[in-house]
Fold:
Amino acid sequence: MNASSLKVRVDAVRDEAVDIRSYRISRVDGYPFDAYEPGAHIDVTSPAGVTRQYSLCGDPDHTLAQLFAVKKEKDSRGGSRSLHDDVAVGSELWVSAPRNLFQLAYDADRTILIAAGIGITPLLSMAYRLAQNNASFVLHYFARSGDHAAFAPLLSEPPFAGCVQFHLQIERDALDAKLEACFAEAGAGTHVYTCGPAPFMDRVTQTASRFVPEDAIHLERFGAPVESAPSADACETFEVRLSQSGRRVTVEKGQSVVDALAAIGVEIETSCGEGVCGTCMVDVVEGTPDHRDHCLSKAERASNAVICCCVSRSRTPLLVLDL
Structure:
């Protein structure tokens, strides 16, 4: 738990699809939540004490309540299982302030949203905002069946009706052709957002890259798919200097920047520990990070302006951080 955590009350629990349950929460102190941009996620600490990240999927303009949904994973390590089994209306939880690494491009001429399964959650909040702005968009929702499509009744009604296409029971060998059809109306100025299982998103991005520029393709991962390989010129050990205090610390082989800084009493807030959530991002003043995260875009990596301290390392002997 950190100082910025909020205690919230669960006001509603609803089964949205097979193994997917939504939770509507409000602040225990009665105040509204801070505004957030669609695509944001929060940390939720379950009754089991496990903290996980979940996308906000309600209307981002409604600040008296927030909505998130959780898929009960078969191999759950306690997070999703505890939320499904131990949380009911009236339960109290701790959540973080929203963070957003998956932001809408409001200058897009057209927006294509492509979701699979629980990946609908961040895209639903985007659909709310796009509909409110009368923007040109379409949401393609892929699911195993109607019973596995969360929020299907909501998406079948105004303001989403007419902007949502359901794709159910699509066989793997038919997926590429179906995805190509999703981009039939993509043109200059189109932005693509996708969220779902990693293999699905890989196929979406591969297909989308034939129709739109790479920097117009955005994705949100729920977990690290594979461990990122170090760069060929990555340093086994390197030094970190803090620009604000001048303090220095050596980051040893197999040690994270977070752990090295903690050893000298400098705490960096972390959450996922996998380079997915972006909680531990810090600005880089000097040096070149060896990016091993799964949340920065290609452009953000190329700029070397920030580093995810829980997993990334350095390609230069010295890394100066804005701390």
Remarks:
- DSSP finds seven helices and 18 strands in the chain.
- The longest helix spans residues 120-132.
- The longest strand covers residues 6-17.
- The chain has a mean pLDDT of 92.
